[in-house]
Structures are given as structure tokens and as C-alpha cells.
Amino acid sequence: MGLQTARLKGLNEADAHLLALREKERCLQEDVRQGERGVSEAERQCADIAAQLQQAQAAVGAHDLEVKALEERIYRLKSQRLACQTNKEYQTLSSEIASIGTDIRRMDDQGLALLGAVDQVEARAKEAAARLAAVRAEQAAAQARASAGQDAVRSEISAAETARATHLPGLDAEVLDRYERLLRSRGGTAVAAAIDRVCQGCFTKLSPQVVSLLLSDRDLVTCPSCSRILFVEGAAADAHRQAPSAT
Length: 247
Ligand SMILES: [Zn+2]
Known about the structure:
This protein is mainly α. The protein is built from 5 helices and 3 strands; from the N terminus they run H-H-H-E-E-H-E-H. It has helices at 3-82, 87-165, 173-185, 208-215, 234-242, and strands spanning 191-195, 198-199, 229-231. The structure holds zinc ion.
């Protein structure tokens, strides 16, 4: 393996490790954000139910006022009836009183239904409040876990960055630039092993010419298909040498 290739291989291993650590850090942050979304959702549900409760209570209040107005009307009609002069007038008032009485009884049934609705919404409000408290507690725990995890991951990242820097001396700027571009465009793998004459980056079979360049320890041999920088080492190199050069 050429010198630059060997350095890039070490650098790519360090970068893969860094990528994994940064992904771990991102996941921890995502857990916290997901928890925050859960809390917002539970808060929104509580607010919705509180508004529904207010509406249900307002309906009970309006209903009570209506009943009270009818009762006052009955009271006035009864006073009028006491003072009436004719039998006909008495009967008219009595029938009006009776009709309003019927209305009030009907409204009493409605009133019970409205109170029942308030009870139901109150029960839902209680459940929603309990759910919100549970989600908030869960979120606080997730936040604490994430903070501890993030501290650990950050110190691992810092150590990995130091380790990565040890692979940089001796690398040509141009080679490093090419490596960085490959790293970005090839999902974090810029340097790939050739095993059984197959590029392990894109799994394309390599031509005998490419294999022979690799076995001659030529530096910076690339995969014709994915452009990754190839290497062979140890037993894999021996296997390449033993295998027929073309199939
Ligand atoms: Zn390839």
C-alpha cells in the first residue's frame, strides 16, 4: 500500500469514527426535540379541553339564567292572576302559567344533560392534566439523560478530533482535498478495501489492470466505478496474487 493511501486509510477510519459520534450526538438532540414536541402536544390538548370546559360551563350558566327568567315570569303571572277580575282572564293566566311550567320541566332535563356534559369534560381535563404531567416528567428525564450523554459524546468527539489530526502530517494538500470531496460525495467512505477483486465501496468487480496496480503498491489507485481510493492488505493481497488475474 502506498504511503499516501495508508495515511488516507487511517484518516478515513478516524473520520468514520467522528461521523458515528456526531450522529450519536444528533440522536441525543433529536430525542430531546421529540420530547419537547410531546410536551407541546399534551399542552395543546389541555388548552383545547380547558376551552371546551369553559364552553360547557357557559352553556350551564346561560341555561340557568333562562330558567330563572321563566320562573320570574311565572311569579309575575301569579301576582297578576291574584288581581284578575274575570274568570276568563283567570283561565288564560292559569293556562299560560301551566305552559311555562311545562317549559321549565323540559328545561330541567336539558339542564341535567348540560351538567352531565360538564362532568365529562372535567374528567377529560383531569386525564389530560395527568398525561401532561407524565410527559413533562419523561421529558425532564430525557433531557437529563441527553445532557449527560452529550457531555460524554462531546469529550469523545474532542478525543477523536485529536486522533484524526495525527493522520494529517505528510499528506499532500491536493490529495487531502480530493479525499475530502470523496468523503462528502461517497457517504463518509473515501477509501475502500479491494477484497476478492471487488471494490468494497461500490461492490464493482475490478479489472485485472486495477488489481495489478494495487498489487504493485502503486499509490492512490482509484476504483473506476466509484472513484474511491483503493487498498489491499495482508491476506487479501495474497489472495489477489494467488487468484488468476482474469476470469
Ligand atoms: Zn468502487
